[in-house]
Amino acid sequence: MPHSVSPVTEASPPPAIEMDEPAVADTAQQPIGDDIAMTDAVAIADAPQAEEVVEDRDAEKGEKKETSGIKLEDLFTGDSDEDDEFPNAPAKKEAANSPNEPSSPSEFDFDPSELTASDPALLRSFYQRLFPWRYLFQWLNHSPTPTLDFEHREFVFTLPNEAWMRYQSYRSSDLLRKDVLRLMPTRIDIGPVYSTNPRERKMLQNVAGFRPLSKELCFDIDLTDYDDIRTCCDKANICNKCWQFMTMAVKVITAVLRDDFGFKHIMWVYSGRRGIHAWVSDRTARNMDDSKRRVIAGYLEVITGGAQSGKRVNLRRPLHPHLVRSLDILKGHFQEDVLEAQDPWRSSDRAEKLLQLLPDISLRDTLRKKWDSSPGRSSSSKWADIDAVAKTSAGKNFDAKALLEAKQDIVLEYTYPRLDINVSKKLNHLLKSPFVIHPGTGRVCVPIDTRKFEDFDPLSVPTLQSLIREIDAWVEPEVKAEKPVQDWEKTSLKPYIDYFRSYVNTLMKDERGVKVKRERDDEGDSMELW
Amino acid sequence: MIRQDFNRIDPKRRNTVDYRKKQFADPSYKETQYPHSLSFYAAPPTADITLEQFEQWAIDRLHVLAELEACSFRNKSSAETALHMKPLLDKYLPLDTNSSSSQVFAQRQKDHYSHFILRLAFCSTKDMRQRFSRVETMLFRLRFNADDTRERNAFIGSLNLDWETVSDEEKRQYAAELMATVVSSFGKKTHQSIDDETFCKIDWMRVPDLVESRKVFLRAGKAYVPSKEQQSLVVTEFTARLEKALELTARARPDLDEDDRLSPILDHLSKSFVAPDSKYAGDSAIEGAEITARNIDNLAQHFPMCMSHTHRTLRRDGHLKHFGRLQYTLFLKGIGLSLDECLTFWRQGLKKKTEDEFNKEYRYNVRHVYGDVGGDSNRRGGGYSPFSCQKILTEHAPGAGEAHGCPYRHFNMESLAGLLQASGVNDRAVLQGVKEDKDKQKFHLACNRVFEHVHRNELKRAKDDGVMTAAQLEMIVHPNEYFKRSFLLKNMGKVSQSQRDGGGGDVKIEE
Questions:
Q1: Hey, what domains does chain A have and what are their CATH numbers?
Q2: In b/e form, how buried is each residue of A140-156, taking b as 16+ CB within 10 angstroms?
Q3: Facing B220 at nearest CB: one of A262, A319, A321
């Protein structure tokens, strides 16, 4: 593993965080590469700290947890909040500065579009000026004032050299922001809330005192899991045609979570390339243990087995109400987005797959003959043929009910959400934070308003490069706003952050109602910590 | 600490008497009421009964429980069991509904007392506790299903389980959805309309398995549990409470050891509760058999399917997974393989393991099973007892790559037929019979059918010669019994052969 970094103990370099311009200019002139990213990270580090750096991570999501075993000694986590060189309200300060910024002619003496998404200079501006730290904090904290929900929450950073830092935790959004700016991670993951502060886990006498307590219920759907039924793209590629699978998935899962389980706070986040994540923040959902999570996963799971295992949907009849409803939701999509847009059975070998899913052998033979004689027949026609042929050539012992059920199963196999179920089953599974930049595409992992999910276009999500350009291009309106304009408000990120903010606000409002007593407990605890 | 002096007369607390005095001041117990025929047996009985009653009631209940357990060994369906148990219950432990009998109080009292007496008798070891709670649960379920609907609902209501009955209005609102769950849980349509079915609303987290398998309708975090599934809820609750109570009883039981009136009765009761499953009657050494590691391959022809399957797997792969090793080691122990021989057997059997790995990972387990190492109770008890069919059938269904379990139950028909044919069972009628037994979940029958087929000649001769009594030819419910019987039958052949050949040795067949 190339760039494994053992405890990065930095000699205290100049406090560079606020003086971003020189730093930015500095790095911009240098060739771009991993080494630069590291020097850069070192340069901005402000307090001597020994951090735990985990070895290069495997790109596999599933393997993340295992990596935690390889740990270097976690030394002191110097509480850098005591040093006052970093004011506690940087956001405000910046906001105050911001009107002047566009007027300074060359804030960036480079063209953002030429740089990659993991370029440290761009990334720094993003973290510094656009990332909604405060709302992220409130979302995880469920309250405006810091609680243990946030303080004991694990953050995981992927550093530019691919090294991986686990068990980071912060007392406030400012400290988190500051550390992110110091380390410049290319990716931030969010883990569970632990029973003790993750940074202090080594100080515990018994290991049992450190265990995950709560986390949002999460779902992860990837378009790669649809490869055997989508014809337009494969692997990491997506287009608007296959994105419709996501639309269907979101509709079905949202209905289950809302109507069946009664969860209210469900947020869908675009994962930056080819998938989406869901975060359910209801208190009951957060506090579920692994067995409860498995129950929900099992309730949702319909498509079983791999691509090789033949018929992948085998449901008991009569269908469970939730499946009846899902089928209702999916029927329209099946016609439009699968039969017409994907045309999955046009070629004869793909059509064979459809035939294998039908129950009646003589029906299969008749259809096969018919389709072989007219190659290139569209999927919608073939789908219609099934009923037509069944009607005309139905034998005595033809089972119309079995055919109907098989057709229902086929509709589900081609439309029903395919979850990466392990993400949902485990309390301590890590998941990428919203608003992080996807390093490959440069797109921001934006939350998606489910009410307008059908309009969401993953290909036009703002990218890091476009956002920086937009700040530059922003012209102050004639009529000055009463409040100073925040940087994110100048960009196309605005609607997403607005949505996030309103989502977080309703979440906090609901939390406030129930947790008067708990908050007092939390205060007691934090008193001890101080 | 300052001790409070309870004898001091405090003018402000004049009425406070020493609580110890107060507790025993007036030992009048509240007369036990039996409002429902069913009971969770929460409160122990307090009134006096005679010693004869004590013993008789317990024996009566034991009759019922033993028969009930036997039904489960024979894989009777719940309807068959109910039919079979009806006369027995009426005779030994009648329990009538509120309206139907004047004997209600006496009946319920007997039920109540006998339950608690048996609790005392069967609380001492974990095995007994498990077995007792299993059969008591069976009895409870049987009675629960037989009970009058109205009284059953009243009983459920009295349990204070936080359920909410679904109103008719709500039922109508979700009629279609609820109907789907009712039909699926019954397998076939038994209710023409939703009005015949009662539902209760319960937080979904209370019934996770029903939710996971999509057997209940869910709405806003509440599961709508149909009455059929309510039964399983109540029964689960019953078992959970009984198990907890039994542990408490076990802790309190030593207080009784001094009592020379009850202890003998209780001991006697617990000993008489021996059913075919509990253990394989220990005289494991079978005369004339050379039971050594070397000879196992030779003996394997007498093994039942489950064991010959594990044996084959071991020979084929040079390895067995944990439960396979456990099940097989215990079986070998049961047929009389000594610990040393057993270690030799495994050392040779686990071909892929180095000496070091074997010593580190496997030796201890084998010794533990034999009671050579481990905790005090393990060593004193001589390790574990061999698994019965009951245990193999119900516990630890084998997963991928595992070779334990009962082939009649855990294999699909194709693999089972393959296994049988590989063992020389080619008779079409037998295979067909096995298939039918398997479909009806009568795995014992299938196994015995195969046994009878394989030993048909010997059995015939044994019957003709009258060598074996009818009792010895009862249904086999233990793998070791299978081996023993098979070995004796086959060897009887050899023995008579050798006699005919003029071997002349007077070999007596052990029973």
A1: 20-45+75-214+428-525 (3.90.920.10), 218-302+419-425 (3.90.920.10), 324-415 (no CATH)
A2: bbbbeebbbbbbbbbbb
A3: A262
